[in-house]
Amino acid sequence: IRKGLEAYFTVLVELMWPKERILEVYLNSIEMGAGIYGAQAAAEHYFGVSAARLTKRQCALIAVTLPAPLKRDPAHPSAYLSRRASAISRYM
After folding, report:
1. Smallest Cα–Cα separation from 81: which of 91, 90, 12, 66?
2. Is the pTM of the predicted complex or chain greater than 0.85?
3. Which of 3, 6, 12, 41 counts the most CB atoms within 10 A of its CB?
């Protein structure tokens, strides 16, 4: 039942909101670390700046943590995270 409701609301949201708004709401509500919710909180926690002042590299580092934000730290990236962030930065 829950999945059916999610599918219904997903279709409604996609019909009513532009993609940019959907992404904005998603980025401002997802968990990006233990008790860290949203891009602004992640920027402040990991890099000590507001989300508006993040560099392209810092944005990419936060993005690559999203598949497993509780296991990955954008402020101290592994070699893998660093390579992925570099790849993402090239597309920005």
Report:
1. 66
2. no
3. 41
